[in-house]
TrEMBL record:
PROSITE patterns: PTS_HPR_DOM
Location(s) in or outside the cell: Cytoplasm
Entry keyword Cytoplasm: yes
GO BP terms: phosphoenolpyruvate-dependent sugar phosphotransferase system
Descriptive protein name: Phosphocarrier, HPr family
One term under GO cellular component: cytoplasm
Entry-linked InterPro entries: HPr, HPr-like, HPr-like_sf
Organism: Lachnoanaerobaculum saburreum F0468
Length: 88
């Protein structure tokens, strides 16, 4: 299991478009991927769960990846989040 704290950089947080990019990226991997946000544990492969969490710009979340491709999944997801999930 891998865990990493990361800050959401999108100016408008994880609304529909960046939540969709995050979920689609997570779905490429076999590993279980969870976002811890406060007391919430959000399944990253569910765009509705990610969007419903209401994660705002500048929020630090804990990304947890567990499974056979966890290292590649963590690297890819961190890069996607740090690059703004398709937004500038």
């Amino acid at each position: 299991m891998l865990s990493r704290k990361i800050t959401i950089k999108n100016p408008s947080g994880l609304h529909l478009r960046p939540a969709g990019v995050l979920s689609q990226t997570a779905m490429k991997f076999k590993s279980n991927i969870v976002i811890e946000y406060g007391e919430k544990r959000i399944v990253a492969k569910s765009v509705l769960n990610v969007m419903a969490a209401g994660i705002k710009s500048g929020t630090e979340v804990n990304l947890i990846v567990e499974g056979e491709d966890e290292e590649e999944a963590m690297k890819t997801l961190v890069e996607a989040i740090e690059s703004g999930l398709g937004e500038k």
